[in-house]
Amino acid sequence: MDYPVNASAGAVDVEMNFEGMFRAYFKSLHAYAYTILKDEDEAEEIVQQVFCRLWERRSSLQIVHSIQSYLYRSVYNDCLNALKHHKVRQAHRQYAMAQGEPESRGSAVSYKELQLRLSDALEKLPEQCRTIFQLSRFEDLKYREIADRMGISVKTVENQMGKALRLMRISLADFLPLFLFLFIETKIS
Questions:
Q1: CB atoms < 10 A from the CB of 145, how many?
Q2: Least buried of 40, 44, 71, 129, by fewest C-beta within 10 Å?
Q3: Which residues form the RNA polymerase sigma factor 70 region 4 type domain (predicted)?
């Protein structure tokens, strides 16, 4: 059973199709997400996010294959991103524990110093590279969204992000564990 996402019928028909699609796929997508994440609430949140994005993009979204395969692929990608985020948070926790109390004076000084060094490192990046990095990490845009906004290819965004991260790692080598926690999270477009 396939449901049109951007049907030319009236808004009521589109809403009814969307609601039917939600009812038809939610439970199975939730079960699929749970097998990956092993967390009921997080699985539910992931599936709801996928449906929210689908609804928000319904007028411009072009699904090449079936809606079912699109939904499962979206849930899979979002689950992988969540798992990566868990690993980054865990690495930061271990780093923070190894460094001592986060409330200590030394940590506060390190964080302020990191902010200063981060600002300096950002200033040293080439303009396009800096813009792409800021859109990705500070505005939380996916590579495809950055490419569309800037009128460049996704491949260019990927290359520029790689360059930015490489240069930032060099500039912030002393703060690498904290830098990794704050900024290094792979985005799948």
A1: 17
A2: 40
A3: 116-167
pTM of the model: 0.47
In the chain, residues under CATH classification 1.10.1740 are 11-81
Query: Hey, what CATH class is 101-183 in?
Result: mainly alpha
Let me know if domain 11-81 sits in CATH 3.40.50: no
